[in-house]
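Progress report, Aim 2. The chain analyzed during this reporting quarter is listed below.
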Amino acid sequence: VLFFVIGFCSESIDVKDEMRFESIFRMLIRLGLAEWFVANNVTIMKAFFTSIGNLVGLISAGTTTQLAIDSTQADIIKGLGFGESLVMLILTALLAIIIIICGFFIIYTVYFRFLKILIIVPLGAIACSTMAGNRMVSHTMATYCKYFLSCVFEAVTMALAIVVCNAFINAGLPAFTGSYADWAQTLIYLCEMTFTIAMTVGSVKGAQTLTSKAFGL
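Predicted structure tokens for the chain:
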């Protein structure tokens, strides 16, 4: 009601002109829609959360992918000599640190997304109530809806990035490495895996920007 009064007072130049039937009817429609959205905004948000969850499930095919070294490459590592094993141990330790850092950034990005949702959901009722105001006031709800959708659809963008990462990792070594030595193939395989994971972190962190631009924010 407060936003309705603010919008009415800011738009009213001639009170007699504003008391026409069509003007009153239009204002009552805005007030009724605002009241309905305020009362049902949580239900609408739950429907979006459920739909996005189902969409992410379809993208990931309902399965979880475990990251593991290929059995062929594992056998090659087991058959290395002392010097080669020492070099490979140092390299794998360095790559493991990089992968752990990348995993931390992915977890942080997902956690921060949940934090944003926990903050914007309680503000839904206030944003929906601005629909009762004039065009300038009701623009708040339009902006809120766009931001809410961008936050929700970030999960889809993140899922797509992770699925593409799994596809690259499971693709194996490039064809031109067939003539390389076994230890060189293993080295390329580990570097390729680490690089793909690092690219996935960049894609997941860029999901917010990409989704926001898609919604015109």
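The chain has a mean pLDDT of 75. Residues 158 and 204 are 5 Å apart (CA to CA). These observations will guide the mutagenesis work planned for the next reporting period.
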